[in-house]
């Protein structure tokens, strides 16, 4: 038992990660909960709930309480985070201080819901930091210098992009086009073109196994099983990487256009810095084959994949809680948004 513990949390659409001062990243679980509609109780969460996705009886609902980085179901999210906070890897303490990474451009109501959620999950003191700032710290970028860095965080629910200079976000943009959106495009394309019904887990499997943003030297394919559209019976179908690449082209183009818009709306001096420093990419979707090459070709700026892109946001919150006084000015510092 300790008097106070300091933790950093990345409450993502796909995964929830927790950083404990002195131990590093101690929890990395899917942000999924299974809810029993008869008893009104959460029966599973994290990896246990993910196994149930698209495989449950009618009285059990498996859902993501966080959608596009925003809390969609407060009660379910609270119970899930409470369970995570009670993990045996996180010691009990009298007091808990938490720094949470949140998407850019949230409304005051959306930020307040995150703060309330973490407080009701057992924290005494809650501070919010925008995810691109946390990602920059987790990637060991020197954001105190008067030079600009462009951080591109492509997660499961949202794509966050921001230009950072002198300890602050100069301009930012958030798109609801990310990993889950690409999965839905694959589900629709397999149904329309291959006449096969598949679920989200299979679409994710296709994306990881053969998905690419640009043509690859190695030809890839994967055998997928689903329900035939016309007969309703099980069927196996071979899916090639060239097919998946064509299905993903449109959403990837929307991400490219969003990135171009951000750069075009930035001050000229900062654009010069970005050309010199490059674009730093992180998040789960950043590992899609050929994506750095596609962005580099379209923008003319070098694209660098950060070390450990899946955990850079939670490691950034860890940097803040470990040196809290040094980085206190980065916290709870948001512009007023009109709803």
UniProtKB/TrEMBL annotation:
<dbReference type="GO" id="GO:0008360">
    <property type="term" value="P:regulation of cell shape"/>
</dbReference>
<dbReference type="InterPro" id="IPR043129">
    <property type="entry name" value="ATPase_NBD"/>
</dbReference>
<comment type="subunit">
    <text>Forms polymers.</text>
</comment>
<dbReference type="Pfam" id="PF06723">
    <property type="entry name" value="MreB_Mbl"/>
</dbReference>
<dbReference type="InterPro" id="IPR004753">
    <property type="entry name" value="MreB"/>
</dbReference>
<feature type="binding site">
    <location>
        <begin position="204"/>
        <end position="207"/>
    </location>
    <ligand>
        <name>ATP</name>
    </ligand>
</feature>
<dbReference type="InterPro" id="IPR056546">
    <property type="entry name" value="MreB_MamK-like"/>
</dbReference>
<dbReference type="GO" id="GO:0000902">
    <property type="term" value="P:cell morphogenesis"/>
</dbReference>
<keyword id="KW-0067">ATP-binding</keyword>
<comment type="similarity">
    <text>Belongs to the FtsA/MreB family.</text>
</comment>
<dbReference type="GO" id="GO:0005524">
    <property type="term" value="F:ATP binding"/>
</dbReference>
<protein>
    <recommendedName>
        <fullName>Cell shape-determining protein MreB</fullName>
    </recommendedName>
</protein>
<keyword id="KW-0133">Cell shape</keyword>
<comment type="function">
    <text>Forms membrane-associated dynamic filaments that are essential for cell shape determination. Acts by regulating cell wall synthesis and cell elongation, and thus cell shape. A feedback loop between cell geometry and MreB localization may maintain elongated cell shape by targeting cell wall growth to regions of negative cell wall curvature.</text>
</comment>
<keyword id="KW-0963">Cytoplasm</keyword>
<dbReference type="GO" id="GO:0005737">
    <property type="term" value="C:cytoplasm"/>
</dbReference>
<keyword id="KW-0547">Nucleotide-binding</keyword>
């Amino acid at each position: 038992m300790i008097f106070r513990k300091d933790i950093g949390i990345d409450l993502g659409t796909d995964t929830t990660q927790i950083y404990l001062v002195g131990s590093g990243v101690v929890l990395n679980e899917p942000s999924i909960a299974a809810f029993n509609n008869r008893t009104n109780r959460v029966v599973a969460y994290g990896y246990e709930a993910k196994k149930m996705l698209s495989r449950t009886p009618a009285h059990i609902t498996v859902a993501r309480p966080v959608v596009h980085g925003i809390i969609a179901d407060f009660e379910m999210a609270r119970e899930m985070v409470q369970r995570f906070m009670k993990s045996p890897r996180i010691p009990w303490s009298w007091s808990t201080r938490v720094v949470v990474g949140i998407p850019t451009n949230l409304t005051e109501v959306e930020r307040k819901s995150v703060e309330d959620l973490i407080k009701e999950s057992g924290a005494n003191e809650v501070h919010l930091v925008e995810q691109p700032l946390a990602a920059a710290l987790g990637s060991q970028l020197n954001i105190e210098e008067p030079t600009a860095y462009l951080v591109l965080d492509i997660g499961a629910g949202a794509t966050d992009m921001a230009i950072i200079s002198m300890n602050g976000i100069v301009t930012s943009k958030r798109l609801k086009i990310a990993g889950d959106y690409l999965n839905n495009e694959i589900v629709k394309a397999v149904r329309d073109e291959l006449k096969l019904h598949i679920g989200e887990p299979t679409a994710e499997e296709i994306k990881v196994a053969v998905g690419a943003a640009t043509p690859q030297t190695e030809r890839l394919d994967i055998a997928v099983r689903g329900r035939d559209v016309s007969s309703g019976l099980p069927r196996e179908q071979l899916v090639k990487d060239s097919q998946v690449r064509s299905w993903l082209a449109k959403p990837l183009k929307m991400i490219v256009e969003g990135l171009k818009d951000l750069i075009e709306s930035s001050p000229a001096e900062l654009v010069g810095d970005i050309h010199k420093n490059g674009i730093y990419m992180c998040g789960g979707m950043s590992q899609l084959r050929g994506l750095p090459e596609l962005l580099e070709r379209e923008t003319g700026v070098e694209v660098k994949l950060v070390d450990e892109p899946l955990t850079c946001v939670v490691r950034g919150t860890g940097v803040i809680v470990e040196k809290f006084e040094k980085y206190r000015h980065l916290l709870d510092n948001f512009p007023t948004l009109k709803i």
